[in-house]
Write a structure and sequence with these properties.
The complex is a heterodimer of chains A (349) and B (131). With 349 residues, chain A is α/β, with parallel strands linked by helices. Helix content of chain A is 34%, strand content 24%. Chain A folds into 2 domains: 193 residues, Peroxisomal Thiolase, Chain A, domain 1 (3-Layer(aba) Sandwich); 142 residues, Thiolase/Chalcone synthase (Peroxisomal Thiolase, Chain A, domain 1, 3-Layer(aba) Sandwich), CATH 3.40.47. The N and C termini of chain A lie far apart (59 Å). Chain B is built from 2 helices and 8 strands, in the order ααββββββββ. In chain B, strands 6-5-4-7-8 form a 5-stranded antiparallel sheet. In chain B, strands 2-1-3 form a 3-stranded antiparallel sheet. The model of chain B has no long low-confidence stretch (mean pLDDT 95). The chains are: A alpha/beta (349), B mainly beta (131). At the A-B interface, helix 3 and helix 4 of A face helix 2, strand 7 and strand 8 of B.
């Protein structure tokens, strides 16, 4: 029995701030930052946007793309590290605003940047077991970066929703298999009640990102007896442009394979949405029969790898909702003062 | 706004759900449970609006009520939905770009919150159709 993607939908706020503008405020060298991070601008949420509103917009786009009856959705899982409430699910808001309530299960997921792909895996299990008809898995974030911290140059806003099902005729892509690699690694964290995350600086690279992404990716290819050349496209978690480019090279994937899904230079790091938006951008361009290799990474730390095969149905559904490239087009640029206002970085007495 | 007061209208606010009189075809938003024309002969049923409409009129808020200070200047307008009813709502666009007759569509946004500790209220606002 196949399990896979019935539909998908992405959402990116229309505002952007350029790296040059953030560097200007903090006196950093923008050219060094841009060439080092391979990020040139990042998305900024509107004053009235948060993870819940972004998740709802992505979910509505996914539902309208496939025109499914939302009542068929039996599980809503929203992965994020910026849920608006500490206690009260984002997923109930999404379920209600998507028209999926009340006969469903719902919960919020948190695993740094890979909470969304963990939600996809949970939905795959529920769908495969026959417990539910369709599952809605979302990765969305309004990522936090403390003013002046290195994270501020990349922490962006956006989200993507995937409807997971197992009726072969409905699938735009079959998820052929998945493999995860997880250890307890303190590379990035945010304590309860703290507004901004902390990170281990250079420690985040090798023992965090590279170890978990390479092990998850290699594990899946060993399990499936596949190799990088078997895939038309590859997507890796995109905290910046440098990490996914380097890990692709380490694993034997080419620039041509990762470029269609490498949206971080113009979007920034959407955390739980990061890898999943890359997959959506790739689905926007893929042809029936193409294979996509994807690996998400979440600090803390773990990697989720997926092997995806695109079906004929992609041609029918692709244009029914905004593509990632359309969401990235024609942004409205803001300066740091407006960015600070949108992000609530200025507290009014 | 009290938690219960918002919750009672939550579905209508989240999904633009109103009502329709099956007898005369009139649509209502916010939902009415009696048709003012057909009275006791009316047949009221739930109706989900597609959300597309146009700006009937608007104003630009420079001095906002408590909780909205960080959004000024912003546009508040009356939107006429395609099916007929009108509603007052925030329009998300640059104030200089709004005009009467502008086609709009709904987006899901934060409507407000009870300070740092209270509920966050969500619902639909409108953006220009070409966004």
């Amino acid at each position: 029995m196949s399990v896979g993607i019935v539909s998908y939908g992405a959402y990116v706020p229309k505002y952007r701030i350029k790296i040059d503008e953030i560097a200007r405020l903090w006196g950093d060298d923008a050219d060094i930052l841009k060439s080092g991070l391979m990020v040139y601008e990042k998305s900024v949420p509107d004053v009235d946007e948060d993870t819940a509103t972004i998740a709802v917009e992505a979910a509505r786009a996914a539902i309208s793309r496939s025109d499914i009856d939302a009542k068929r959705i039996g599980a809503v899982y929203t992965g994020s590290e910026s849920h608006p409430y500490a206690v009260k699910p984002t997923s109930t808001i999404v379920a209600e605003a998507s028209g999926a309530t009340p006969v469903l299960t719902a919960a919020d997921f948190e695993f740094a940047c890979k909470a969304g792909t963990a939600a996809v895996q949970a939905c795959m299990g529920l769908v495969s077991s026959g417990m539910i008809d369709l599952g809605l898995a979302i990765g969305a974030d309004v990522a936090q970066g403390a003013p002046g911290d290195a994270l501020e140059y990349t922490a962006a806003a956006g989200g993507v929703a995937y409807i997971i099902g197992n009726k072969e005729s409905e699938l735009v892509a079959v998820i052929e298999d998945t493999f995860s690699f997880t250890t307890d690694t303190p590379d990035f964290w945010r304590r309860e009640g703290m507004p901004y995350p902390e990170h281990g600086g250079r420690f985040t690279g090798e023992p965090g990102y590279f170890k978990h992404v390479t092990n998850a990716a290699k594990g899946l290819m060993e399990k499936m007896h596949t190799k990088p050349s078997d895939y038309d496209f590859a997507v890796f978690h995109q905290p910046n442009g440098k990490f996914p480019s380097r890990v692709a090279s380490m694993l034997g994937f080419s620039k041509e394979q990762i470029n269609p899904g490498l949206v971080v230079p113009r979007l920034g790091n959407t955390y739980s949405g990061s890898c999943m938006i890359g997959i959506a951008a790739t689905l926007d361009q893929a042809k029936p029969g193409d294979r996509i290799f994807a690996t998400a990474f979440g600090s803390g730390a773990g990697g989720d790898a997926f092997s995806i095969r695109v079906t004929d149905r992609i041609e029918e559904l692709r244009d029914r909702a905004p593509k990632v490239e359309e969401l990235l087009a024609n942004p409205v640029y803001v300066d740091y003062s407006r960015y600070a206002r949108h992000k609530g970085k200025i507290k009014v007495a | 706004m009290s938690v219960a007061r918002f919750w009672r209208n939550q579905i209508a606010r989240y999904n633009l759900v109103g009502t329709k009189c099956k007898k005369c075809g009139e649509h209502f938003y916010p939902p009415r449970n009696m048709c003012p024309a057909c009275r006791r002969d009316g047949q009221i049923e739930d109706f989900k609006f597609n959300g597309h409409g146009e700006v009937l009129t608007f104003t630009i808020i420079h001095t906002a009520a408590e909780g909205f200070e960080n959004q000024t200047p912003y546009v508040l307008g009356i939107i006429k939905l395609q099916e007929g009813p009108s509603l007052t709502c925030q329009i998300i666009c640059e104030p200089e770009s709004v005009y009467i007759g502008m086609k709009v569509k709904p987006v899901f946004r934060k409507l407000g919150q009870d300070g740092e500790r209270g509920m966050i209220y969500y619902g639909n606002k409108f953006i220009p159709e070409q966004c």
